[in-house]
Every structure is written in structure tokens, then in C-alpha cells.
Design a protein that fits this description.
By secondary structure, this protein is an alpha/beta fold. The chain has 2 domains: about 270 residues, Aldehyde Dehydrogenase, Chain A, domain 1 (3-Layer(aba) Sandwich), CATH 3.40.605; about 180 residues, Aldehyde Dehydrogenase, Chain A, domain 2 (3-Layer(aba) Sandwich). It is built from 16 helices and 22 strands. The strands form 6 sheets. Strands 14-15-16-13-12-18-19 form a 7-stranded mixed sheet, sandwiched between helices. Strands 9-8-7-10-11-21 form a 6-stranded mixed sheet, sandwiched between helices. It has a 3-stranded antiparallel sheet with strand order 5-6-22. β3 and β4 form a beta hairpin. It is globular and about 75 Å long. The structure holds nicotinamide-adenine-dinucleotide (NAD). The site of nicotinamide-adenine-dinucleotide has 28 residues, from α8 and α9. Nicotinamide-adenine-dinucleotide binds next to α8 and α9.
């Protein structure tokens, strides 16, 4: 069984456990405890105690430790990547990319001496100066999803702790191994015990974290219904909360697009990470004369993608996270066919492999009214829909409830600008299939893809984990 980290102690709670799998083989490789209120209270107590000194530790000392942590993450990139692939399933290259994107946030956190500056205005009125300072909040918590076991925890705790907070992380119970190694390296970098704590579990642990009176802020990333639930619960209890949820992302292709480039980018967007990505482009809207050539190019290229264990070189699509999740994705595809979509490429031919594999699947003639055109599938399923004009394509993209990402492929600056202005999504790609902001920018989902005000990462992250104090002075 894997342990919780409470202060400096790795503790195995006497709790029921769940298996952790290698999704490429279906084998059980570890067990994760389902912690409850008792373990959560211990972690918060350790964090609360550490906060007394950590919040007073100088910015330069905190920054020095963060630089050391960055160095350790760089040194252990390959090891972290292999841990990701082992229990998540994504390809090793995708795992390396994930670690790199996570380290970017640590790079950003190392800028604390600038990021944590307040502002001053002398002589606001006669003889009066006004300053504001940034202060930490106290103990804060992060609850993370299965699909980026290293990157998403790194979106949160480096920014929280560099600002002087202490942190309790509740990783996904399906992929908790990355967080353990992140926490070990954090201690090795020299951060004091209790600055980062780790509690494994599921709903019971999440509810206990949100309800605890000493937790000042909640960061959440996961599915839309749970994001909504966490947002409501935390806000109701007077906590600061940022809750990123699910997505349904559209990739519009105009007739003037570079077809070869668009095809490769769409395949990566739809099928990379086996489609288990909140920035997966799961609907391609083909506009006008590009419809038939694009569909044919996608079908031919997708058919050649290599499906298999992510640890093997040359593999492009790894397994899904669990057998039950694959069943869910299969039911989703079947619902699409029943509702009138046309199956162009059938990924079910990989069902006989050991592990939880599903091959790339393409559905054509999808509309926003269909389940596959409206809801997140979170698997290697690409829906193709058709539109006569850019205006019609925009209307389709804006009809769904989510607003994480939207992409356009075109050679026209005017069309791209119109798209940027009108599309109801917070992350926009122009000739880029996965418009993931770099770690020093916020990660701004819109509509039902995000609940809260300040987003994860970047300057929003720093603002989320700090509070302002204004001082008005006359001498
Ligand atoms: P999930 O919602 O099932 O789980 C996320 C976290 O919430 C986990 O730590 C889990 O233990 C906890 N949890 C699950 N059910 C809960 C409940 N009923 N009450 C309280 N806590 C609960 O999500 P997942 O399947 O792990 O991750 C995939 C989802 O995350 C997808 O919908 C994906 O789009 C989304 N996601 C969003 C972003 C983003 O930035 N918007 C990034 C990555 C993933």
C-alpha cells in the first residue's frame, strides 16, 4: 500500500484500499488507501504547524529551495516520466512532455522575488502614502485528476508554497504514484516537513478537506460535475476556490487551411494521451470544400497510428485508464451511431489486446445535438461535423456547454481574427491543435469548463494563493 505524507512521516493508514493498475497489461501494481477525515485532519494539523514558520521564512530562502527543487525535477525527469507511463498508460514521449510542462510552473515560481511584490503610491493625497503587500492565506489544498499525475499537482503546490502557504495534496486515486515521487523530491530539496503533505483517497477525503475549518482555499481539476460540486461546497463554506472541469473542444478547418499540417495536428489533438486530455480536440468541424479531403486524410492517417504499451518506442496511442472507463467510451460511441453518426474508423479492433486498449475511432456526420457532439467522451474518439461557412461552424462550437479550447486551421488572418473574437472558449489555437498555455500564463477555461474567478497557473495562480493588505500612512 502506498503511504500518506504527514509532515515528515510516511504513514500507512488502516483503511480500505483500491488497486492501482498498469493499464497496458491490466496487472495490479500497487494499492492506494482511501483516507478519511482522520488522516485529513492529521495532514492539516501538520500543514498548520509548518505554516507558522514557513509563512515567515524569507522570500529569498523560499526561492532558493524552489530552484533546488527545479534542479531535482530536471534530474529525475526520465524517472518521473516512466512512473507516469507505468500507471497512467500514456506514451513515454507524452509523459516526458507532461513533466516538462509541469516544470515550467516551477520555473515560474522561481520568479517569486518579482511575483510577490506589492505596489506603492506615495503622496496619494497631502502627506499620505499608500502601499499594498501580498500575504499568504494559510493551509490550502489541491485535488487532482488522473490524466496528468505530475503536471497538474505542479500547477498548484509550487505557486502556493512559494507564496508562503502550506499545502495538502489529494492526488487521483487512480494515478497517485507521480505525486509520491514529487513529494519525496520536495523533501530532498530541503523544504521543511509539513509544507507539502499528501493524503490519498477519493470522495470522503475530498469532502473532509473542503469541510475543514483550517483550509483556506481549494484548487480542483477534474470532471465537470465534480468541479461544480467542489465549487459549491467550498464556496458555501466561505473558501476561495478554483475548479477546472471537463471540456468539449472544437477544431474548425477552413478550405484554405494547410491540409497536411491540419491533419497531423488534429490527430495529435484528438488521439494524443488516448484522448484523455481536457484539451483534446474531440470534434473537427470541416467547412465547405475541405469536408471530403479532410475526412479521407484523417481516416488514412489515423488507421496507421501505432496502438500499444506506451513504454515501447514508436507507440502513438496508449491504453485507457481502466476497463470500466473503456466500457463507458464504447457506450458513448454506440450512442453516437444510434443517434445517426456514421462510423468511419472502428477502434474496437484493438479490444483483444491485453490491457485497456481502444484504437482511434472516427465518427462522421456528428451534430451538436448528438451525445458524441455534445458530451465529453475522454477517449480516442474523433467526431467530424460539417458546416457550410465559418459562421455556421462557430455556431456549432458555441452551442455546447463547455468552453475550454477552440482551434481554427486557416491561412486567412481575417477569418482567424473573427474566430478569436467570436468563439466562446478561453484557450484558442490558430493553426495549433492543442492550445495549452505555457506555465507562466493562466489556464482559462470558460463556461462549464471552469468554476471560480482566478485560474490555475501563471499570475492568476499567484493571485489565487495570496491576499492583499493595504496600508495608508501619514507620518
Ligand atoms: P474526476 O472528477 O473523477 O476526479 C477528479 C478528482 O476528484 C479526483 O481526485 C477524485 O478523487 C475526486 N472525486 C471524484 N469524484 C468525487 C466526488 N463525487 N466528490 C468529491 N471528489 C471526487 O476526474 P478524473 O476522471 O480523474 O479526470 C478527468 C476529468 O478531468 C475530465 O473531465 C477532464 O476534462 C478533466 N480535466 C480538466 C482539466 C482542466 O484544466 N479543465 C485538466 C485535466 C482534466
Amino acid at each position: 500500500m502506498i503511504p500518506n505524507l504527514i509532515g515528515s512521516q510516511w504513514i500507512h493508514p488502516a483503511r480500505e484500499t483500491l488497486p492501482i493498475y498498469n493499464p497496458a497489461t491490466g496487472e495490479v501494481i500497487e494499492h492506494v488507501p482511501l483516507s478519511g477525515a482522520e488522516e485529513v485532519a492529521q495532514a492539516i494539523e501538520a500543514a498548520q504547524e509548518a505554516y507558522q514558520t514557513w509563512s515567515q521564512t524569507s522570500v529569498m530562502e523560499r526561492t532558493r529551495l524552489m530552484f533546488r527543487y527545479k534542479e531535482l525535477l530536471e534530474q529525475h525527469t526520465e524517472e518521473l516520466s516512466r512512473i507516469i507511463t507505468l500507471h497512467h498508460g500514456k506514451t513515454l514521449d507524452e509523459a516526458r512532455g507532461e513533466v516538462r510542462r509541469g516544470i515550467e510552473v516551477v520555473d515560474f515560481a522561481c520568479g517569486a522575488p518579482t511575483l510577490l511584490q506589492g505596489r506603492t503610491l506615495r503622496q496619494v493625497t497631502q502627506g499620505i502614502d499608500q502601499d499594498f503587500y501580498l500575504y499568504p492565506l494559510g493551509v490550502v489544498t489541491g485535488i487532482t485528476p488522473f490524466n496528468f499525475p505530475v503536471m497538474i499537482p505542479l500547477w498548484m503546490f509550487p505557486l502556493a508554497v512559494i507564496a508562503g502557504n502550506t499545502f495538502v495534496l489529494k492526488p487521483s486515486e487512480r494515478t497517485p504514484l507521480g505525486a509520491i515521487r514529487l513529494a519525496e523530491l520536495f523533501l530532498e530539496a530541503g523544504f521543511p516537513p509539513g509544507v507539502l503533505n499528501l493524503v490519498h483517497g477519493a470522495k470522503e477525503a475530498v469532502d473532509a478537506l473542503i469541510a475543514h475549518p483550517d483550509v483556506r482555499a481549494v484548487s480542483f481539476v477534474g470532471s465537470a460535475p465534480v468541479a461544480r460540486y467542489v465549487y459549491r461546497q467550498a464556496a458555501h463554506q466561505g473558501k476561495r476556490v478554483q475548479a477546472a472541469g471537463g471540456a468539449k473542444n472544437h477544431l474548425i478547418v477552413l478550405p484554405d487551411a494547410d491540409l497536411e499540417h491540419a491533419t497531423a495536428a488534429i490527430l495529435n489533438s484528438a488521439f494524443g494521451n488516448a484522448g484523455e486530455r481536457c484539451l483534446a480536440g474531440s470534434v473537427t468541424i470541416a467547412v465547405g470544400s475541405v469536408q471530403e479531403p479532410l475526412l479521407e486524410a484523417l481516416r488514412v492517417a489515423a488507421e496507421q497510428l501505432a496502438v500499444g504499451p506506451g513504454i515501447e518506442p514508436g507507440i502513438q496511442i496508449g491504453p485507457l485508464i481502466r476497463a470500466e472507463h473503456r466500457e463507458r467510451v464504447l457506450r458513448y460511441v454506440e450512442a453516437g451511431i444510434k443517434e445517426g453518426a456514421q462510423l468511419v474508423l472502428d477502434g474496437r479492433r484493438f479490444l483483444n489486446l491485453p490491457g485497456f486498449f481502444l484504437g482511434p475511432t472516427i465518427l462522421d456526420h456528428v451534430t451538436p445535438k448528438m451525445t458524441v457532439g455534445r458530451e465529453e467522451g475522454f477517449g480516442p474518439v474523433l467526431s467530424v461535423s460539417r458546416a457550410a461557412t465559418l459562421g455556421e461552424a462557430l455556431a456549432q462550437a458555441n452551442e455546447v456547454a463547455y468552453g475550454n479550447m477552440a482551434v481554427i486551421f486557416t491561412r486567412s488572418g481575417a477569418a482567424a481574427r473573427l474566430f478569436r473574437e467570436r468563439v466562446e472558449a478561453g484557450m484558442v489555437g490558430i493553426n495549433v491543435g492543442v492550445a495549452q498555455p505555457f506555465g507562466f500564463y493562466p489556464f482559462p477555461g470558460w463556461r462549464q469548463s471552469f468554476y471560480g474567478d482566478l485560474h490555475l497557473q501563471g499570475s492568476d495562480g499567484i493571485e489565487f494563493y495570496t491576499r492583499k493588505k493595504v496600508v495608508v500612512t501619514r507620518w
